[in-house]
Each structure stands twice: as structure tokens, then as C-alpha cells.
Design brief:
This protein has 481 residues and is α/β, with parallel strands linked by helices. Helix content is 39%, strand content 20%. The chain has 15 helices and 22 strands.
């Protein structure tokens, strides 16, 4: 493990070794741009080649690693994350500007993700299939088993620098795959610190590399045929271009959305207001399942909107390191300026601003709009900002149709106490997940998670990610007669 000081750049984790490079990477602190959060390095092309070669060689070891050993490694990583909980949360707050109260939750979820992966590693079951369904197939039975797919290329985003990376590293280790992970350039220090924990857990040499790298080198990784699976979380525009360049490897994409929420006539409004505040404004809206479009029944519109706007105006903004802060800055000032341009565009198209809407540096306040045409960018694209647009509706079917009127389909929240409406939403919403009486922003780490349409391809959640990182193999046993 490297000895890191507050000023010394953090080395990068190359196939079990800590190395430096000539390409220094400064990590900014969005809340205090004049005070860097730290420094590390981008990998060189030569270091990338070493990491990939090591992953290919290590796969010959990891694919034979017994379940108890994979489980042990993952449990030790989980315990190591718990032991450094406060340190990791503070680091996330510094380099990602995530309020520390939310960063603590992310660290706890990261520890849970590795623990769940250990459990899944120990219950990768197959099945027996009777094959004697016609006379010519008499005396035969099939047995299935999952085998690790091969070296994995993984690219994770800035908004959950620990847990979304964990959703790539943990299932890879559980499945018996080697992995090269490119952490986000905006906040790589979190996963480089987790790499210290990984090293202590003792995975096979060369099986894990955590390498910040340039976009050009990341592009090389996407196309590299030595990887058998590419798993990417990020923007739809980038993700679908990656799929085009990925060649024959399997591709899993967890992309963005403009998540909708329906507040039905029968909804518990106190609960709906409380939860949608979280869904719309947590981490300044920089969550792919953040509430962006809100459809509220006309009979409760006035009551709900009055409560929601008032509560949004009272959200505490400020320093991410302050435990009382609910909303900190966006990851960079450019993103706050983009959000303001989108709001101004919506106003120019006839939209009405109820609160917020103006950036102050990297800070963007909770913003609520109505009367916005659906062609405005704040409706049709992914805002990735603390911006929510509200629409009234009279008919539940119309609300479902309007949620579906999107290029995206990640998750939708439906607040209703009408069981028929809940089932109807489940049947008709074109999304990967329907969350009844909660926000689309809800996720726990063992559930299947992913989207349809432009929101992605495949599912995460440990069991489902392991299925993608393994290949099903059939053995047929014939009894000679």
C-alpha cells in the first residue's frame, strides 16, 4: 500500500503494483476550485498495455478460483470499506462535491455491494434439464453451469465514484473475471483509495487494475479485442458510440434518463412531497434516475405544488463537508451554466419558473418549472441538474402516455393508493423499473437495475451483472442403451 500524504500525488494501481507516470492529473474541488482535492496520474499507453496483458494472464488463475476464495476476497473488501467509512466519505465530498451525509450513504452502499457479491459468488447455481422429450432423445439429461466470460473492461462515472465502480468490480471478482477499471477523471481518488483495500484483500496478482487514463486511451480500451465484456455507466451519447466500436465483445450500458414521477389523485401528498424533494434535488440532480418530469393529478395539483415549491425553497445549500448541507455545488461551473441555459430556453418557449433557475458559480438552486413545452431540452433531454418540470393531468392513462413520450426509459415512480393503477403502470410504462409509492431515484444494490430505449442495455445488480459476466455452458449426459 502506498504511503500517501496530503500533498503527494496518489499512485495508480497497475496489476497489483503502485506506479506513477509523467502525466499528472489534478483533481479539483468543485466547492473550492482554487483548492485542489488532490493529485494522481493518468496511465501511459505502455502502462495500459501492461495492465491488459496482466488481466489476460490473470484470467487463467481467476477462472479457476473456488467460490470460497472469491467470497473471502469480496468480504474483506467490504470490511475494509466499512473500516475507512469516514475517510472515504470525506474524500467523495471533496472531489465530487457530494454532501457528506449522502457520501456516507454511498460508502455504506459500496460496502453492501461487495458483501452481496460475496454471497452471489457462493450461489452461482445451474440446473438439470430432462432431454428425453422424444424417443430419439431417450436416456439423456442436460446440466448447465456458468463460466466466467474473460477479462472485463469497465468505465465508471463521476456521480457515484465508489458505488457505481463497485457495481463493476464486485461482480467481476465474484464471477471469476479479471478487470481493468477506468475511474472518472473528475474524482478518481476514491477508487484509488479503495484499491488500497483491494490490495490488502489479496486477489490474484494482475487481476485488478484501477487506472485513470485519457479519453484516447479509454477509446482504445473500448475497442480492445482482448476484453470479452465492456461495462460502461455514463451518458447515452457516449455509451451508444462505444457499443459501435466495441467489436465482438459483450456490452452492458447503464445510461441516462429524464425520469418521470406520477402523483395520482389517491397519493399520500405528505409522503410524495418528502420523497420527490429527495428524488429531484439529491446531489444537485446529478443522478441518472433523478426526478426530472413530474405529472400531478389536477385534483391535487394546487395543494401538492404549493407544498413542493415551499419545501424546495427551504432546502439548505452550502459546503458539502457540512453535515447539514442537503444540496452542494454541481461537479463543475460549466454544468451549472448549461442548466441555466436550458432553463432560459424553456422560459423563452413559454415556460414558467416557480423557483430557482440562476447559477452562482458551480451552485445551481432547486429549480421548478411549469407550462414548459415538451420539446424544450429540460423535458426532452437529460438535465442532470436540480431541475424538475411539472405537468397536470386528468386521466391516469394520459399520465402514463406522457411518461412514455421520451427517448429514455430507466425508472418511473408512481405515487398512488389505487392498486389497479399500480398494476396498470407496471404493465404499460416503458421503463426498466416501476417504483410504486416512491421515487424513480430509489435503488438498492441487489435489485435488477437498468433501462430500455436510449437508457441502456443489460442490467446491473449483483446477480444480473454476474450473469452478463459469465457464459452459460451445457453438458449433455447420454446413457448408452
Amino acid at each position: 500500500m502506498p504511503a500517501i500524504t496530503g500533498t503527494k500525488p496518489h499512485p495508480i494501481f497497475l496489476a497489483g503494483r503502485w506506479v506513477e507516470s509523467p502525466d499528472m492529473l489534478e483533481v479539483t474541488n468543485p466547492a473550492r476550485p482554487d483548492e485542489p482535492a488532490g493529485h494522481t496520474y493518468n496511465a501511459t499507453p505502455e502502462q495500459y498495455e501492461e495492465a491488459v496483458g496482466a488481466a489476460v494472464a490473470a484470467f487463467e488463475v481467476t477462472r479457476h478460483l473456488p467460490a470460497y476464495e472469491r467470497g473471502r476476497i469480496l468480504r474483506e473488501i467490504s470490511a475494509g470499506i466499512r473500516a475507512r467509512r469516514e475517510e472515504l466519505a470525506r474524500l467523495i465530498a471533496l472531489e465530487a462535491a457530494k454532501p457528506v451525509r449522502d457520501a456516507i450513504v454511498e460508502v455504506d452502499r459500496g460496502a453492501l455491494t461487495f458483501r452481496l457479491a460475496a454471497e452471489e459468488a457462493e450461489r452461482m447455481v445451474g440446473e438439470t434439464i430432462p432431454l428425453d422429450i422424444m424417443p430419439a432423445s431417450k436416456g439423456r439429461v442436460g446440466i448447465t453451469r456458468r463460466f466466467p466470460i474473460g477479462p472485463v473492461a469497465a468505465i465508471s462515472p463521476f456521480n457515484f465514484p465508489l458505488n457505481l465502480a463497485a457495481h463493476k468490480l464486485a461482480p467481476a471478482l465474484a464471477a471469476g473475471c479479471s478487470i481493468v477499471l477506468k475511474p472518472p477523471s473528475k474524482d478518481p481518488l476514491t477508487m484509488l483509495t479503495v484499491a488500497e483495500i483491494v490490495e490488502q484483500a489479496g486477489p490474484p496478482p494482475g487481476s485488478v487494475s484501477i487506472l485513470p487514463m485519457s479519453r484516447e486511451l479509454g477509446d482504445r480500451m473500448v475497442a480492445d479485442p482482448r476484453f470479452k465484456l465492456l461495462t460502461f455507466t455514463g451518458s447515452p451519447a457516449v455509451g451508444w458510440r462505444m457499443k459501435e466500436r466495441a467489436g465482438k465483445k459483450k456490452v452492458v450500458l447503464e445510461l441516462g434518463g429524464n425520469a418521470g414521477v406520477i402523483v395520482d389523485q389517491s397519493a399520500d401528498l405528505d409522503w410524495a412531497v418528502k420523497r420527490i424533494l429527495v428524488g429531484a434535488f439529491t446531489y444537485a440532480g446529478q443522478v441518472c434516475i433523478s426526478v426530472q418530469r413530474m405529472f400531478v393529478h389536477q385534483d391535487v395539483w394546487d395543494d401538492f405544488m404549493a407544498r413542493f415549491v415551499e419545501a424546495a425553497r427551504n432546502l439548505r445549500t452550502g459546503d458539502p463537508l457540512d453535515p447539514e448541507t442537503l444540496l452542494g455545488p454541481m461537479v463543475e461551473e460549466a454544468q451549472a451554466q448549461r442548466a441555466q441555459r436550458w432553463v432560459e430556453e424553456a422560459i423563452s418557449m413559454g415556460g414558467r419558473l416557480l423557483t430557482g433557475g440562476r447559477a452562482e458559480g458551480a451552485f445551481f438552486p432547486p429549480t421548478i418549472m411549469t407550462d414548459v413545452p415538451t420539446t424544450a431540452q429540460v423535458c426532452s433531454n437529460e438535465a442532470f441538474a436540480p431541475v424538475v418540470v411539472a405537468f397536470p393531468f386528468a386521466d391516469f392513462d394520459d399520465a402514463i402516455r406522457r411518461v412514455n413520450d421520451s427517448f429514455y426509459g430507466l425508472q418511473t415512480g408512481v405515487f398512488t393508493n389505487d392498486l389497479g393503477h399500480a398494476w396498470h403502470a407496471f404493465e404499460e410504462l416503458e421503463v426498466g423499473g416501476v417504483i410504486v409509492n416512491d421515487i424513480p431515484t430509489y435503488r438498492i444494490d441487489h435489485m435488477p437495475y437498468g433501462g430500455v430505449k436510449d437508457s441502456g442495455l443489460g442490467r446491473e445488480g449483483l446477480r444480473w451483472a454476474i450473469e452478463d459476466m459469465t457464459e452459460l455452458r451445457l453438458m449433455v449426459l447420454a446413457q448408452p442403451t
